[in-house]
Amino acid sequence: MHLGELDTPAVVVDLDVLERNIRRLAEYCRQHQLSLRPHTKTHKIPEIARWQIEAGAVGITVAKVGEAEVMTAAGLDNLLIAYPVIGRSKLERLMALASGNKMLVALDSAEALDGIALAAHQAGTSLGILVECDLGMKRCGVQTPEEALRLASQAHNRPGVEFEGILFYPGQVRVPPDLQPSLLSAVSEKLEHLLDSFHRAGLPCRIVSGGSTPTAFNSHLIKGMNEIRPGTYVFNDRNTLELGACTLEDCALRVLATVVSTAVPNKAIIDGGSKTFSSDRLMAGAKEDFGLIVADPGLRLVGMTEEHGHLDISRSARPLHIGSRLSIIPNHVCTCVNMHNQIYYHRGGEVQGCWQVAARGRVS
Amino acid sequence: MHLGELDTPAVVVDLDVLERNIRRLAEYCRQHQLSLRPHTKTHKIPEIARWQIEAGAVGITVAKVGEAEVMTAAGLDNLLIAYPVIGRSKLERLMALASGNKMLVALDSAEALDGIALAAHQAGTSLGILVECDLGMKRCGVQTPEEALRLASQAHNRPGVEFEGILFYPGQVRVPPDLQPSLLSAVSEKLEHLLDSFHRAGLPCRIVSGGSTPTAFNSHLIKGMNEIRPGTYVFNDRNTLELGACTLEDCALRVLATVVSTAVPNKAIIDGGSKTFSSDRLMAGAKEDFGLIVADPGLRLVGMTEEHGHLDISRSARPLHIGSRLSIIPNHVCTCVNMHNQIYYHRGGEVQGCWQVAARGRVS
Question: What ipTM was estimated for this complex?
Answer without folding.
Answer: 0.97
